[in-house]
Each structure stands twice: as structure tokens, then as C-alpha cells.
Amino acid sequence: MELLSLLNSPVLYLICGGIIFFVAVICLVFAVRAYKMGKALGIDVTKMRRVITASATFAVLPSVGILLGVIALSGSLGTPWPWLRLSVIGALHYETQVAEAASESVGIGSLSIANMTPEAFVTIALLMSFCIMWGMIFVTFHGKAYTKRLSGEKKDKSAGASAQAQKKKKKPDLKRFGDTAMTAMFIGLVSAYIASYFGTIVSENGRFTFTGNWLPLAVAAVSALAMEGFIRIKKTGHADWVDSFSVAGSMLLSMAAAVLIGKFA
Prior knowledge:
By secondary structure, the protein is mainly α.
């Protein structure tokens, strides 16, 4: 518990809180500038206010999932660090998975304050930061060119190229490729985690038994069913706004299922 008190020390709160405050100020500056630019372009002020209200409203429930992630990680990593990671550039699915994988790699087993050491925390925090910073670096140097390619803009480097040849030339659909690659990556991650629990199934005399913990598999099934329900609501009701709530809603339902199953099973 002494280590946990250090991870929740005022110094860490000051450092992490200062960074979050700086990012919040930048967001506010851009919001004010965007509002003024909208007025300058002649956009109806009433419509802009509706957009602001709708955006703030739809941001509330998804942020509940982020809060749950902070609470889940605060028991082993303290509150300031997860608060910083999930407030600025981190993602809930990324932070929890990387923290768990890093804890296993440093030899402390599950992500728990009982097994946490200062060296393990430094390694986990460094890995969580190092693996996600490349998006900022790449977009700084290549973001403009990538945006042009997504929008279909392309510089003609050959002065003698004909318009007909340019039309026939196929352009790679980078947006579709990016979506497919991201989906494939998460399917691989989910498959690896689920397979680790299926690996504890042992066959003895024709009977299959769990030698490990089957609760994560049950929770994963509940979460998948909940997400399927949100997808069906979106498709049948043409409710695109459901996307803003599906992740947080699935998390809440799966966490509730974990508590109920663990208590009554």
C-alpha cells in the first residue's frame, strides 16, 4: 500500500493534472476559434449552438466507459497516471490491454497493486506511452499528404500525362484499408485473449473441464451479445447515435454480468 500512496501522491497529481489542464485549454481555444469562424462564414448561430449541445450530450455516456477504465486501473497504477493516459491520447481498450501485457512481461503476473513494484510501474508506464506516441509523430510529418490522398487529391508529377490515363489509373482506397487493418488487429487481439482462457480446458476421460477461470469467457459472451444488440438497434431503427453509446453500454452490461455471475455462480 505504500507504493499505491506514492502513485497517488500530490506531485503526480500536479504533473498529470497540469498536462490535462493544458490540453483542456487548447481544446477550449480551438472551440472558441471554430465558433468565431462559423459566425464569420455566416453559419446560423442557432444551428451552431444546437451542434454544441448535441455534441456535449452525446459525449457524456461514452465518457462513462473512460471513467470505468480509470477506476479499473487506479487500483494498481494509482489514479493520476490512468487519468492522464485516458484523458489526453489513450484509448480504453489499448491502455488496459497494454498494462496487463506489460505486467505479465515483467513477471508480476496479473495487474495488481499487491504484486506491483516501482520497477514494474516504470516499465508499464513507459510501454503504455511508447506504443501510442507514434500516431502523433507520424501525423506531424505525413498527416497533410495522407489527408490529400484520402480526399482524392493527387499531384501530377508527369507534365505529359493525359487526362484519360489519369482516369484509368486506379487509386488505392486507403480509408477502406485502414478500417480493415484496424478491424483485423482487434480481432487478433480479442482472439488471443479468449484463446488464452480456452487453453485452460482439459479433456479427461472424454470430459472437458476448466482448469482455469471461466468467468472472463462468460463476461466476453455477455459483452458480445450486448454489442450485437446495439448494432441491431442501429440497423433496424436507423439510429446512428447508438454508436456513441455502444462501447460504454456493453462495458456496463458486461461488468454487471461479471458481478452477478461471480456472486451467484
